[in-house]
Prior knowledge:
Blueprint: H1 2-26, E1 30-31, H2 34-43, H3 51-61, E2 69-70, H4 74-98
Antiparallel strand pairs: 1-2
Amino acid sequence: MKQKAWAVHFVYAGIFLLLAGGQMYAVESFQLTPSATKFLAHNVGPGPDTPRGALNHLMVNSGADVRETIRPPGWIAWAALSAGAVMAIHGGLLIARKK
């Protein structure tokens, strides 16, 4: 039974990657909310001790409605679609083999 459970996880992960890849392929850019932009500026971006980080922190903390725009490269969508297809097919084959 445990082997079958892992196969189902492969199928679910593959479907998730297929949907994420399709979303990235269909949309050119993603615009974040101000709270998400503030979270990224404080936790992911360069530190406030660097010139770019200091500018980012100044802009985000100024109270202005700052929104980050993310433009993923085109190859990311194809990579997610490909990996999702391989994982979903692999999981389906594992399930079929166990029956």
